[in-house]
Design goal:
2 copies of one chain form a homodimer. In chain A, 51% of the residues are buried. Helices cover 46% and strands 13% of the residues of chain A. Chain A has helices spanning 3-9, 24-35, 54-63, 69-72, 84-92, 102-125, 140-146, 176-179, 190-209, 217-224, 233-239; strands at 46-51, 75-82, 129-133, 153-162, 180-182. The first copy, chain A, folds into 2 domains: 3-169 and 228-239, NADH Oxidase, CATH 3.40.109; 176-214, no CATH class. Chain A is α+β, with helices and mostly antiparallel strands.
């Protein structure tokens, strides 16, 4: 097994960082490594906003549901899906702009995620810790105002980077046979595997909280899917020019 | 700079593979490395369908717009956004299923992309080559039928893996200052940087095709955004249970 595979398997989110800064050269190198990820149809539909202003950081930490590490991490960035940069050239070449299909939304969102995950791997390879901040989608309109995002651009998630000041355990994942299917989608056997996994997850939480009952994976995710989840997203995205047609 | 950063920067898509198989142990290891990627709200909303059946492979190669390496690569997988696996437990716990918001779609799609990019990095770290196959979204309904995808599951992209039988150049990316913004979204200076980059891209294509005029980045992407792009996606996704509400 390669040391890179070991590195990938050792990922855990870091939510407490030391004061150590990330050198400008290293920071740029992480971004360039991010850019090297595949991009659908060569769109390069990602823009990263690096936020250093402490007031903006504090505001975003609050807007994201009260996540103080957004303010305190050495670096915080917002990864945006960007159809504007390429779209600008439709007008320049006298073509109509039709870049607001559901498919364009998928292309740009996937582009952003691939780039971000490369930044994450690059960062972890030099001893940095990371935490994705999906919570910025709690208040995407306010975040977009702060970052002056124009139409055609939407903030997908934030990312904290810094040198870790904690050493949490790796969180157990679903058994591989549950997520990897042969030839067709087939759930036979999943129920049993997931029941065993549920116990593993309970134990993980019991150890972290020092007692208590723990919560299983199925309890957590069934709650997530039984509640309205950021129901403002559709309207927000349409307002930003993503039409879902 | 770490060797991992060098590895990430050296990515290029591979579309011609040797006959060499990938060992089952290594293959599983790549998937486990994929699973270790961050997952929003611990959803783990990804399912991978590994396709080995030659007939299915040929069909998907065709459905994806005629991409023969889908059939010939050592491994081909389809990465799916999966809200069904977790959604099953809403019923079990007597909760309503509300997992069809736009936000759930984003969560699962990002989950899939982060996992896939980890698989890619793991694969490239052991000398394998990869090619993402967004073309499966040309015919998502037919692909879903072949893979027996139920409602709540959608095929985001395919991925070819194998030992490279070609050594293409790394494709140049946008200048870093164009995609990395400080504090706010700001396009000043982009036009000039992109004009220089356009020339670099033309030269890249000139060298690859052995002459001709080359095509610039802005020409390519403005075409992509001036045309209806897979206009069937919205209806297909709604049919699969993704309601965009």
């Amino acid at each position: 097994m390669s040391s890179v595979i070991e590195l990938l398997k050792s990922h855990r989110s870091i939510r407490k960082f030391t004061d150590q800064a990330i050198s400008p050269e290293l920071f740029e190198d992480l971004i360039v490594a991010g850019q090297a990820a595949a991009t659908s149809s060569f769109l390069q539909g990602s823009t990263i906003i690096r936020v250093t202003n402490p007031t903006t950081r504090e505001k975003i930490a609050e807007l994201a549901g009260g996540q103080p590490y957004v303010a305190s991490a050495a670096e915080f960035m917002v990864f945006c899906a960007d159809l504007k940069r390429a779209g600008n050239y439709c007008e320049q070449y006298g073509k109509p702009f039709e870049g607001d299909y559901t498919e364009h939304f998928i292309i740009a969102t996937v582009d952003v995620a691939l780039m971000a995950q490369n930044v994450v791997t690059a960062a972890e390879s030099v001893g940095l810790g990371i935490c994705y901040i999906g919570g910025i989608r709690n208040n995407p309109g306010s975040v977009s105002e702060l970052l002056e995002l124009p139409k055609g651009v939407f903030p997908v998630f934030g990312l904290c980077l810094g040198y870790p000041d904690q050493d949490p355990e790796v969180k157990p994942r679903l058994p591989v046979q549950v997520i990897l299917k042969q030839e067709v989608y087939n759930e036979s056997g999943d129920k049993q595997s997931i029941a065993a996994y549920d116990e593993q997850v309970r134990e993980y939480y019991r150890l972290r909280t020092g007692g208590g009952h723990g919560i299983s994976w199925t309890e957590q995710v069934s709650t997530l899917l039984s509640e309205k989840c950021r129901p403002h997203m559709k309207e927000f995205l349409e307002g930003q020019g993503f039409k879902f047609r």
